[in-house]
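pinging the channel bc i need a second pair of eyes. not urgent but kinda urgent?? the chain im working w is below, pasted from the shared doc
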Amino acid sequence: MRILVVGDFFMPVCYFQESFDALTKEGHDVEYLQIDPERTFQPTTPSELRIKEYLGTPAEVCEHMEGVEVLAVQGAAVTDGVLDASAKLQLVSCARGGPVNVDVAAVTARGLPLVNSPGKNAEGVADQAIAFMIMLARGFPAAQRFLEEGNQLKDNWEGAKFIGSDLRRHTLGLVGFGLIGHQVARRALAFGMRVIAYDPYAEIESGLGVEQVPSLDELLGEAHFVSLHARTTKENLNMFGAATFAKMREGAFLVNTAREDLVDEDALDAALASGHLGGAALDVVRHSSEAGRHRFLRHPNVVMTPHVGGNTHETLFQGAEMLAAEIHRFAVCEPLLYLVNKEALGL
């Protein structure tokens, strides 16, 4: 098969090459294209308007599509024009959990399977969630600000003002128990934490050491740390508002590496200001038109990062590995594991 692999500045072709070299050894013709970051376009067609969070232009991909049977991308724009640029196209693959840069409707309408890489960032995000908990438990945000302000400790005894806690003997409450929640639980158990989880859509298998609680209220009343790992839906939009924070234990910590829309930020700000919450660690917040320092950073017990939970080299390599494995399965007529649009195959 002729395979076109499109890299971008976030996931350059070097991340694809090791995994896709195995496909070359199997006899496939693999071509690599690195998107020109200077090329942009103004979406005008319905297909172009359906995609988002893309890099480069459809035209640049089209220039390399002749005879392509398999297209592999991370952030490249995949529109109906790209799909129609090769009469031989059989499979579209995207190294993202949510292929929002791909016109899924157009792919499906052409009867083409689309595969992605769900959970490729689970390990990276789980690591960050645990790191956040350690920073909050130990009071590291306040300790760092102490140094940033030019202070220093005179002796070890003065360090008593920064005595924190271990994670052991504390309860972690997971809201959502998908791939990432599962990985966070494994790590937390290794730290000696008790782990409870609330997810009305998941059945937690016995033997994991995780207790499934029947309600969010029960989790809030028991957890010293509440870590969010749910996708945003109409039902859970702003699920963490004033009433929810009031039900959390006094001094409990909130960790959000999932979705910003799960949290009412005004209510979180108030819960931090009142002292009811012991602190918060956030990898995701709503975009603000206000310039300058985020308002949450005025609190000495807040840690923030700019949505980088899954931004690791290993995550990118794993995404490429997952696509290469799916392409191999497709080539030898084995079932696809990460099919996005089952209806395209009549499944």
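so The radius of gyration is 23 Å. and The longest strand covers residues 2-7. — does that match what u expected or am i reading it wrong
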